């Protein structure tokens, strides 16, 4: 029996009610949103449910939306995979821009350890309960988070790079 989007949505809304929302099919992946305080329970449910069986964390990454209101300036995006049915799912959680933090899932998926560290390193998102949350690619002495949109891609003297082409705007243009 193929794992259908309607079954996933029905099981999630039955269990989490209005804490899961914005269900949509985007190309070949079923997507939804939840709140930061429900992500651990949701991930555990998706992993342990005998019908859903999303046992593999494909990716975890951060996104910065500086033009959004403060409560939705950062997002954590989780991609899970059910190998039995070859079904993928995307979960997006928006975070407060003033103090972006979310609980770690490294106790559920060990592979998230490095992904969470990388997201912290580049976006400054705190993963509460992470066993070793520190920079993984940048120097420990860095005080900024280079993937945030306010961080310039190159020095302002370069003319061969234009920040507008990378989703950033400059005040001098």
From TrEMBL:
Residue span of region Disordered: 153-173
Location(s), subcellular: Cell membrane
Basic and acidic residues biased stretches: 153-166
UniProt EC number: 7.1.1.-
Keyword Membrane included in the entry's annotation: yes
Major place of residence: membrane
Source organism (scientific name): Flavobacterium pectinovorum
NCBIfam families: NuoC_fam
CC annotations in GO: plasma membrane
Family according to the record: Belongs to the complex I 30 kDa subunit family.
Protein name: NADH-quinone oxidoreductase subunit C
Catalytic EC class: translocase
NADH:ubiquinone oxidoreductase 30kDa subunit domain boundaries: 33-155
Task performed by this protein: NDH-1 shuttles electrons from NADH, via FMN and iron-sulfur (Fe-S) centers, to quinones in the respiratory chain. The immediate electron acceptor for the enzyme in this species is believed to be a menaquinone. Couples the redox reaction to proton translocation (for every two electrons transferred, four hydrogen ions are translocated across the cytoplasmic membrane), and thus conserves the redox energy in a proton gradient.
Molecular function via GO: NADH dehydrogenase (quinone) (non-electrogenic) activity; NADH dehydrogenase (ubiquinone) activity; quinone binding
Bilayer topology term: Peripheral membrane protein
Signal peptide region: none
Catalytic activity: a quinone + NADH + 5 H(+)(in) = a quinol + NAD(+) + 4 H(+)(out)
Subunit structure: NDH-1 is composed of 14 different subunits. Subunits NuoB, C, D, E, F, and G constitute the peripheral sector of the complex.
Alphabetical keyword list: Cell membrane, Membrane, NAD, Quinone, Translocase, Transport
Domain of life: Bacteria
InterPro entries xref list: NADH_DH_suC, NADH_quin_OxRdtase_su_C/D-like, NADH_UbQ_OxRdtase_30kDa_su, NADH_UbQ_OxRdtase_CS
